[in-house]
Each structure stands twice: as structure tokens, then as C-alpha cells.
Amino acid sequence: MALLSLRGERMGPAMTTLTAAHRGYEYQDLLAAARLVDVMLGVVVEAHVDEKLVPDDRFDDLTTIDAMAHRERTQFKHTENEDQPLTLATFTTDARSLRLDRLVGTALADRDGPGASASEFTFRVVLRDTRPVDERLLAVLRPAAPDPGPLLPGIQSFRMHFDPDALWGEAAMEADQDIDGNPFLFLREGAAAVSRADLEWVCARLAIEVEAPAASGDLTDPGPAEQLLLARLRDEVGAELYPNADRSAVDVAEGVIRTARSARQGRLLVTPPELLRRTQLRHDFGAVARAHPVDKAIEVPRKVTVEDLVEAADAAADRGSPVLVVGPPGQGKSWVCQQVIDELARRGWLVAEHYCYLGDADGERLPRVLSESVFGCSWVGWPSPTPG
Hints:
Layout: E1 3-4, E2 10-11, H1 13-40, E3 44-49, E4 62-66, E5 70-77, H2 89-92, H3 100-112, E6 120-127, H4 135-138, E7 141-143, E8 158-162, H5 164-171, H6 196-203, E9 206-210, H7 224-237, H8 249-264, H9 272-279, H10 303-319, H11 333-346, E10 349-353, H12 365-370, E11 379-383
Parallel strand pairs: 5-6, 6-9
Antiparallel strand pairs: 1-2, 3-4, 4-5, 7-8, 8-9, 10-11
Helix pairs in contact: 1-7, 1-8, 7-8, 8-9, 10-11
């Protein structure tokens, strides 16, 4: 059956294939964007999008390294068919670039090459396909135990692992049997053969993640995949909340997707500053330059109050408890705290300070004064260690 383009033209096989490829890239960009949220949060410290890191790389769609040096390499496979079970041919042929010996070879090359310094590895194939029903595939591909968890929080996918014992047992059949009787013979014979130990290592770290969420292709009418990204941006990043109440989650999502797309095209390196720039998110919670609009020449110091607060801070430091200076706006809390800071520093304390309100020049004056939330402390300190 022929398909019609949006212009009403009949679409031939080449155009149909190209459309499928474009949708595959859009899906890849969407899920990659949802994962890049972890770059914004500081969980992922390095990310590579659509970058081949080893020869014949089969996990090049997304590579992330977290703060614990855990290295995760992911390949996305999209299909428009909602009811297509994962097939044996997916891993015994290379029609989808997922032949199992090629996946194993990439994982081993990454382990021994660019990932040599990693503390641990995860290799993922994320597919829209549903769970397999072919008994020959189910004999070697089983529910993951232990389950590595989904690629993204909240994703309703199903994870599976290859059983190395079952794969090796299949391959141990008589060599004169045909390929239909021994579909994974190539794992231990031929140029791409691997050792039993290497196969076990890869199978323990290779997650086949099926039933990945569908995408609508429209952030204003989001499908399950878009909803995952929007939820992360609202709940974890703070889109549509102070100080980004004016930044729609849809607009921010588009910025992250565009970043993923540009990275896939080799135009940029994904970093937190780049993501913040492209999403136009504020991350300083309204920080402003430090300023003290008091003329020291005519200042009336509050020595008694300052001394009382210093003594309270000294006693509180011994107990490990806080000191709160409470009063209505405009009563001089911030300025007396500054005097306390100066006095503590003069006495050799280590002092850290943070100002929430700095006067009429502060553009966030009303939210700070009227809010029932605490955005930070005016001062905090503790005595410096003394010799002996």
C-alpha cells in the first residue's frame, strides 16, 4: 500500500524509508534530551551524542559518564509499529545493526579502549518493539535479574538480559548443523568469535530495553515520551517554578531537544552552561551583586546588639545549633548581621555569607520579602582551629 505525503503526493519506497529515518532521528533526539537533563542536574559529567568512539561502534547514539565514573552507552531503535514483537533476526542478522556479535565486539572494544578508566559499564539497546514471543529468542533472552532499571526515571519499559549459559549452550551444538538450528554459532566461531569469559562480562552489562514509550512528535500534544521529558523539566529542573516561572516547560524542552540535535550533528559539545544558555533558564535564584548602601562615616553602630549576637553564635557553635535573627522587613537585620560577620572575622572565625535581599536595587525584592520560603542564610560561621 502506497503512502501519501502531506502534499498529497504518492510516496515511493525511497521516500517512505527516508521518512522512517527522520522519525528515528527525532525519537533519538527526544530520548537523548530526556537523558541530558542529568547533565543539567550535575549527575552526568560528560555526554557524547551520536559519536563513534570505537571502530564499528554499535552504541554511538548516546554515551554518558556520571560522577561515579559509571559509563553508559545507549543505542535507540524506533519503529512506528506499536505491536511488533522483538524478533530473533534482530540479533542474528545485521538488518538493524544489532547483530549480537557486533554488539559484544563494541562493548569489549569500549571496555579495553576509551572506557578503560570507567568504574562500571552499562550498554543499552532501547527499542519500541514489544517483548519477544519467539521461543528461540526467549530461550536466550530473559527478564533482567538483577534489573538495571530504565534509561529514564518513570519510563515504563521492560528490561531483558542475554543468558550467556544459554547462548554458549546453543553455540555448542554440532558444527555441521545449519544456522536455523544454531542461530548464535557465530559467537564462538569465525572472525568475530569471543571467549566465554568476555561473553559473560558483556551479558551482565547489556540491557535490552523493550516497550520504550511512544512519541507524538508534538510537545504541545505530548505522547508518553514527550511527557517524560516535560515531567523531568518541571519536577527536577524547575521549569515553570521560581525563578523560572516564566519559562514554559514546552519551551525549555524544545531547547534541550535542539541541543541534542545540534550535538548529534557535531555542532557542539553538551555542557551545563550550553544547556542553560539554550534553554534560557536562570540558575542563580536571583543572585545579585553584593552591596552595602550604608555610609560608614555617619553609621550608628549597634555594638551591644552585635556583641549579644556574637556571644549567641559562640554558644550555638559549641552546641552545633543555629541562631536566627527574626524581625519585620526594614528593621536592620541584614545590616546588623553584616556587623556580626565583620566582628566574627576579626576574631578569627571562618565565615560564609549569603544575602537574600540587598535593597531597592534588587529586582526580586518583593518575592524575597513576601515569600514564606527561606532562600538562604544571612551568615554562618565557626571558630578557626587554633594551634595545639
